[in-house]
# Entry
Amino acid sequence: MGKPKKISKIFDRQILFLILVIILLSLVFGSINPKFLTWRNLLAIFQQIAVLGIATMAMALLLISGGIDLSIGSMIGLSGVVICKLVMIGYHPAFAIFIGALIPIGCGLVNGIIVSKSKCVPLIVTLGMSYVYYGMALVISGGLFLSLKGHFTFLGRGRVLGIPVPMMVVIATVILIHVLLKYTRLGRRLVVMGGNEQMAFLSGINVDRLKIKVYTISGAIVSLASLVLVSRLGNVLADVGSGYELEALASAIIGGVTFEGGRGTMFGAFLGAILLGIVKNGLNILNVSSYFQTFTLGIIIVVAVVISNIEKIRA
Amino acid sequence: MNGAPKKFAIQAENISKIFPGVQALNQVSFDLYPGEIHCIVGENGAGKSTLIKILSGFLKPDRGEIIVDSQRFKALTPHQAQTLGIQVVYQENILAPTVSAAENVFAGQEKVGNFGLIDHQKTFEEAEKIFSSLGVKLDSRMLVENLSPSEQQFVKIGRALALQPRVLILDEPTAMFDKQEAEAVLSLIQDISQRGIGVIYISHRLEEIIDIAHRITVLKDGQKVACHDIKTEQINLDYIAREMVGREVKFFQKKKQTKKGKVALEIKNLKIKEAGPEVSFQLYQGEILGIAGLIGSGRTEIMKAVFGAGQKLKGEVSVAGKKSQIRNPAEAIQLGIGFITEDRQKTGLALNLSVIKNTTIVGLNKLPTSFFNLFLNLPQEKLIVQQLVEELAIKTPSLEQEIRFLSGGNQQKVILGRWLFKNVDIFIFDEPTIGIDVSAKSEIHKLMANLVDNGKSIIMISSEMPELVAMSDRVLVIREGDIVAELRAEEITEENIILHAFGVKN
# Structure
């Protein structure tokens, strides 16, 4: 059994490998522009990737349990628009935030019900739902900028003991979801469902209900991402969250989570988000044009997916 | 079929093929004349499909030669076989459902008109020609998905004929048909052979073979037992069925008979298909109830329905004397029933996950927890699995090993361990030792014998005759969805099982 052992070692090493790449990249960026490696900039990076990091947790949780949700970005937009709209027409900010936080949870619940009851491919269902949610956000906002009017800045811009609050939120989320996945029965059932849905069903797991649960939980995580983002920006457009679903997907895949489900860790996925964040920030600091940045990000994503699939090509 | 020495349409000499652990074919020779219908019969696993695959180029023989047109081949490729005019009509559906019958017939050799574009008119007309030459009324413009199973079979045969074969191989073409449909296919086959095309015909229905065959070759455990010429020999079904079985049972140790306890599971009037039969049976505590029948006879479907994992139209299930509702596997497991599926890779295991996760999934609620029952105690879980691994002698480099790297036998033991940990009382095994090497087989058999010794009950679906004979206290034979025989004690012989399974004996 020599060969199998090696392969499993490579998987253990994937996280180590990611950390190495992240350090190496930081050194490269730092040597070209010393500003990159300052404490200030590092905190800024974390602040920038907080929303992506949280959204990545939602996506990774779904991928590991065999699902996917492409409406995450639209859910963020809808929630942000609703919060600002309520504030603007005079409701108490706390009430607006409460309602806004419920929206992605409801969206996740709806997605989960459709996916589990219709037995349709989640990729297509949630792609369709992303238009539904985005459309709702457009209708509510009328396509205009909406503002929080200066309320509710703590979650997105606040600092405690010099550490940005978003950074604390994202780290707490990673730990929480990690614990959920690894140490609870619910998490274990999710992993097994992602590994083999038919076997999970034959093992007495109520697969439909479990899917609804995981989509709802993922909606709750998205709601957190949305609050952090809205709080940081202070004003929103309906498309404020657009692109997050794909970046979260990319981060998770870079971090070792697979499309087939059952495999990957939250820490790995988070490292994927950090890698994406560092590349973006680094390219910014090096004054690379945003067009070229898009190109570079694409290359990184494809390379990461190919690397994580190498074992299959060999077999 | 008379006259001086005829040339063979195809000839195979001393073909041998070994799969890991099995000699699938051993020095088998086979030949076919033009215009002849040559039937091949044998139990599941006798080597019929291996032989077909070798003749059609999908498998390479380890030894032997194939001779077509006085050319000798060590092996054929699928492409070579096609150009030599060897066509196979498989049992499975290999048609494109959303495309018309005609386009299916000419898929890969489309009728082309001007500018290299497809000439639909010609495609339909040519297809109609083929169908009408077969005496089949079939609108070639119909989409295949709207055709009945037998019409689809005609399309498959039409497709093979469009390639003007010299040899047509048919693998159980009537398996899914009722009598009338089957007769239509049979007369069509006779018609085809009269055009000078050699037909190799494989079927589990012995009656129809006797009707149409010119010669019958009997295979058993990869060996050719006999080749009968219907014209010169008087053959009856019984004789052939006996030839298909007649092997010495050496491999398996006969399990000692256990004392029969109370009724553990009772099924009354279970119906799984509209217009299907209703079945009733009982499983006693401490017994192994063997379920025999050909592949496709509905054995698995019946047991899946019992377990709540398959369609069930009506029927009553009682567990340990109590009437019970089983609507899904969760409820079956709650009542103490476990199901070990036939296809480990697809439905038995989460291949990406560790031995631990694969073992404890059913019994997750029995694992020790901490902090208000919120968190799993992973070190304790590991100990529990370690114990099971030792008890069942599962060979794995570590408990964290992904299960796909284990051998089939060890994988099966992990699945068994899963149900042992849940501590169910009734085990339904579907092909308990399929794809497992001989030594692991006997280990699994010992574990099964242990289970019934300890008062558990087992339903064992199996295609392996020696396994059924050695392990079962009682055997139910399933044919076309119905229980056609219940065999006890000395009645449990391979011959009896085969005769009932093929419907020769009632």
Remarks:
- DSSP finds 14 helices and four strands in chain A.
- The beta strands of chain A are 146-147, 159-160, 163-164, 235-236.
- Residues 1-10 of chain A have pLDDT under 50 and may be disordered.
